Structures are given as C-alpha cells and as structure tokens.
Amino acid sequence: MKQLLYILGICLFISCKNDPKKTESESTLGDEPAKVEVSKSDDKFQLLVNGEPFYIKGAGLEFGNVAALAEHNANSFRTWRTDNGKKSATEVLDEAHEYGLMVSMGIEVERERHGFDYDDEDAVQKQKERIKKEVLEIKDHPALLIWVIGNELNLNYSNPKVWDAVNDISKMIHELDPNHPTTTTLAGIAQKEINYIKERCGDLDILSVQMYGDLPDVPKLIREYGWNGPYMVTEWGATGHWEVPTTDWGAPIEENSTLKAANYLKRYKGGIAADTIQCIGSYVFLWGNKQERTPTWYGVFLENGKETESVGVMHYIWNGTWPENRTPQIASFVLDGKTAYNSVTLEKSKEYIAQVIIKDIENDPIAYRWEILPESEEVKEGGDHEARPEPVTIEGMEEKNGTLKFKSPAPGNYRLFVYADDGFNHEGTANIPFNVK
Predict the structure, then answer these.
(1) Fewer Cβ neighbours under 10 Å: the N or C end of the chain?
(2) CA 104, CA 94: separation in Å to the nearest integer?
(3) Span 324-344, pLDDT tens digits
(4) Domains of the chain by range and CATH?
(5) What is the spatial distance between Cα 294 and Cα 291, in angstroms, rounded to a whole number?
(6) Is the pTM of this model over 0.90?
C-alpha cells in the first residue's frame, strides 16, 4: 500500500508540474484578496503582489482565449467593463484565477462623446452608486490586480469635470478596498491631460496611456510632460487606422501580419522595455478579435481562432524564446501586379490575378483562403462596436498555390483578403483595398 501511495504521489507531482494552467504568477496567488501596491525605491517604481515584484506581461482581453494567454506565459489581462455581456466580473476573475492570471478590471465610466453631461450632478452621483455596487461585488477576489476607471475619457471631450468624477470614484474605491490600486487610461498623451490628472486626480495610484504607432515616444513624453509617477501602457499594438497611408479614395492601408509583428517587437522594445524606471508593464491590444475598420486590423487572433504572427512575437517578449512552430510570413502580396500602396483600380466584371508569396520557416504546407469584403461604412471612434461587412461572392474563382484568378465585382470599394494556414493553428494574412469603376 505504501508503495502504491508513493507511485500515486509521484504521478500527482508530475501532473501538477505539467499542468498548462500553472504560470509563474501563480506563486503570488492564493484564495484571499491579493495585497497589491506600488513601491518606489531609488526613483524606480514597481508593482508588488503580496510583497513580491510583479511586472505586468499582459493583454487586453474581453472574449479572447484565456488558456492560450497562460500557455504563452503572460501573467495578466485587462478588461474594459465588469460585465461584458457574456460573462460576469466574477466569472471572468474565476477563469483568470484558474489559469494563474491576474486581472486589471475595467470599470465602465460614461463618456462625454456619448452624450453624458458631467455638469449633471445627479447623473454623476448615480454613476458613482452603480460603480460602488460593482466594486463591492468583486473587491476580495484573489485574481483582482488593479481597478481601471474608465477608458479614454479624454477622447473628444471638453468638460474637465470628468477628472473630478474619476478622482471621486478612486477615493470611493480606496475606502471600500484598501488592497488594490487605481488607474485611468488616456488615448495618447498630451500636456493638457497630464496637468488635469496631476491637478484633479491626486488619488489615482497609476497613470495609464494607450499608444500605437507612436509608442516609442512614450518614455520621452512621460518625462517631457512632467509625469513623475508610475505608469503602464494599457493598449498598444498594430499601427492605428488613423496613422497609416490611404488610397486615393481614402481607404486606410492595413499592414500585413508580418509587418505588424515586426512593429510589435520594435515598439515594445522602444516604448515599454526601454523604461525600467517608471513603467510597470503593459497590455497588448487585442488578445482576441474584433471588427474595427477590418476584421483583421487589431486582433492578434483571427475570427477562426488562429494565431497571427504577433502572437509569436508576444511569446518571444514574455519568454525570451520563439515558439517551436512559427506563423507563415507574408513575403509579398499583389493584385493586378500592384500593392495596396498603388491605389488599385479595377474595371467591373473583368478577370484579374492576385498573388501572395509566403515564407514559412518550417516549410509547412500552406492552405490558402480568399475573401472579398466591401469597404466598411460603419466607421466608429474609440473602439466602439462596428458591424462586419458581409462578404462578396468571388466570381470566376480559380486558386492554386497562392495565386487567385477572379472576376471583379460590381462598382464600389472593396478589400481582397488572403489567409495562409500552416496546419498548426497559425495564419498569415494581408488585404488590399481596391476600387471597381
């Protein structure tokens, strides 16, 4: 019997050791509320969880793959609201805890650009009462890391009283919950908002900024604008659709998945890793998928759950090594012999050829998918919900080894998408906007 129990003990030890739900952050997690605080030593800031240093290696995640995040060795994710419409805050935190991850929990704060009036004292008070209930419900959850009060409240606003409301919410949270710090996120970074935060939001523990193409400027701007406290980057990733060149008819040109991945690594090194004094970590955007200008622009996963090359980059950032199998890379992609930067114009119902050239490090066999979508007409700001365009039937389609022959659709503005699948849950992708006369 003793020998049998010994063998069972070894099996249980091996099972726990190989459990994919275990991460390096799990040593800081128990079943009690985590004590999270910001410490400063010799002008260097760091986050402590139960007394242990915790550098945030995270991703923005609302409906994304939590298990994959843990498997790639992240230690945290952030949300934008306590109830995302599919899962409650408790369910989100429970799943995070199951995988040894901690959550910077978003709190929905009304935006002036959506019609909220911060001069309306009754409305502001009702919002505060609603938030109090949300905080009380989950404040003692062991997976809770930080409270994120609102998202990009500086986007298209004019009333500085929003910052008074943020500070009041932060004070309330600290009274209810002494264990977790507070922050609010800014779209970009500007002197005016830094001044407002310093003057009106003295109760906040951390500043959060969200930058894309200009991410490498963040450490310099933080100091230039006089922010002397800790900060984190709560959104960063692909070059924004407002930052890229456009076609002659105004369609923003999306970078292919390989160029995106290269930029993720470059920007992380220059805009996050470069600041070892004030930056306490970051959340890449987006660990999942969403329609925003296109269905491929911001998510590091595709709609079918396949990983893009940017997931491999995050694996490298979080582990120091590349994944065993790499995503197919886009070497070139042309339509009618032209790239997206040539403002491709076609004539209706004529036959055209598109060609993509793929490089795969392991020389895996590649399967190709093609799709034509009308240019999105429902263009929102600040990440608000957009409807995905309905695909167009590809007439006269012939495809072989990355070469597509097809007939152009009816007059209008479109995008031709290609997806290259290596059979290992990875896909490279690119698209070319085109106009049909």
Answers:
(1) N
(2) 13
(3) 999 999 999 999 999 999 999
(4) 19-319 (3.20.20.80), 329-436 (2.60.40.1080)
(5) 5
(6) yes
